[in-house]
Amino acid sequence: MVKPWDDDNLEGPASFIGMTDEPRRGGSFFGRRKGKPLRLGQRQAVETVLPKLLVDLSKPAPIRLSELFENSVDAVRLEIGFGGGEHLLHAARTNPATGFIGVEPFESGLAKAVTAIGREAIRNVRLYDQDAVLLLDWLPPASIARIDLLFPDPWPKKRHWKRRFVNQANLDRIARCLVAEGTLRLATDVESYAEWVCEEVVKHPRTIVVGDSGEPWSDWPGTRYEAKAARAGRGARYITVALRANDTPSN
Ligand SMILES: C[S@@+](CC[C@H](N)C(=O)[O-])C[C@H]1O[C@@H](n2cnc3c(N)ncnc32)[C@H](O)[C@@H]1O
């Protein structure tokens, strides 16, 4: 399978097999949006269920983000690049009083998650299908209890490191959205990305690494990408980032 981060000549997502979208420059999404054609059930779920779940960025965000959810939720979490949604859906099923926003621009992953949400009538998930940066900029300050960024596209080649999701600009966005006690959880199977994250977090005035382990967090269901990495003999680093003490959310 062609992976975005393996392509030496990548200039934007349109250079990938199956891509039909225009490349979006200046954001944080460089991957494919389309893969294999969707199965009938997935196509139907995308047409009927997805429109009810999508967060609409053309309207201002509600001051109380919990209003995005039809059931009552006492906190909101965000997962960026949820892939097939294994972790997102496990978290939503096991935390029914928490609202989850999942972001995934890759159609096949999105369709898989939407199909499961429709089948199981999961009520505490909303979705966004574009670059997570746009959603982060839309969210109210200090509105998110936890952000999960699990196995972000690794961009292992040094000349591509600037495409990595974790950078000073996105740490600004993440720090703005997190509540004071909030955390960012990041997992990666690429050692240079783990080191990169720690360096970027240390450089950033509002963030601090509070956990860095070769073992996942206790409430961890695993992810599809993690399982692939394990089959290839690669372990992972599980890093927890918090806001520095006395951090005041800014607008
Ligand atoms: C390596 S995959 C990991 C998927 C999943 N988290 C897992 O562990 O199985 C990275 C995912 O991040 C998504 N992604 C990359 N850049 C993104 C961005 N700027 N906003 C939202 N999702 C993004 C990709 O579409 C891809 O599905």
Termini gap: 42 Å
- The CATH C-level class name: Alpha Beta
In the CATH hierarchy, the third-tier topology is known as: Rossmann fold
Number of helices: 8
Computed over alpha carbons, the radius of gyration is 17 Å
Look at the structure and name the CATH superfamily.
Vaccinia Virus protein VP39
User: Helix/strand/pairing class, anyone?
Assistant: alpha/beta
Q: What is the approximate shape?
A: globular
Question: How many strand elements?
Answer: 7
- Number of structural domains: 1
> What CATH architecture label applies?
3-Layer(aba) Sandwich
The helical percent reads: 25-40%
Sketch the major β-sheet: 7 strands, mixed
Describe the secondary-structure layout.
Elements: H1 40-48, H2 50-53, E1 75-80, H3 86-94, E2 98-103, H4 107-120, E3 125-128, H5 132-138, E4 144-150, H6 168-177, E5 178-188, H7 191-203, E6 207-213, H8 224-231, E7 237-243
Parallel strand pairs: 1-2, 1-4, 2-3, 4-5
Antiparallel strand pairs: 5-7, 6-7
Helix pairs in contact: 1-4
This protein binds S-adenosylmethionine.
In words, what does this structure look like?
By secondary structure, this protein is of the alpha/beta class. The chain has a single domain, classed as Rossmann fold (3-Layer(aba) Sandwich), CATH 3.40.50.150. Helices cover 29% and strands 19% of the residues. The protein has eight helices and seven strands; from the N terminus they run H-H-E-H-E-H-E-H-E-H-E-H-E-H-E. It has a seven-stranded mixed beta sheet, sandwiched between helices. Strand 4, helix 6 and strand 5 form a beta-alpha-beta unit. The longest helix is centred in the middle third of the chain and has 14 residues. The N and C termini lie far apart (42 Å). S-adenosylmethionine binds next to helix 5 and helix 8. The site of S-adenosylmethionine (SAM) has 24 residues, from helix 5 and helix 8.
